[in-house]
Specification:
2 domains; single chain; mainly alpha; 5 helices; 91 residues
Length: 91
Amino acid sequence: MYTGIPVTDKLMMVLWCLANREAYRVLSRRFGLNRGNVHYIVMKTCRTIAQMADIFIRWPTREQYLELSQRFTLLNTLGKYYHSSNSHIVW
């Protein structure tokens, strides 16, 4: 189905939909389209993003995961230390 809507507008609609969790009826009024087109655009765009997830999401290797885990533990420990000393520093 060709909707004749620029890709940037479709992406903005999907991002708005995901960020605000609005119903298709509300989106249709906000973007001036009928609910069927809004549904089609949102579903097709989300499906396309999901199919391309391996391009956009890079999972850490085991070594990277361990390093990130250690850094998080260190920051968590520092946050508890500052919190327990009644400091206003928030981590």
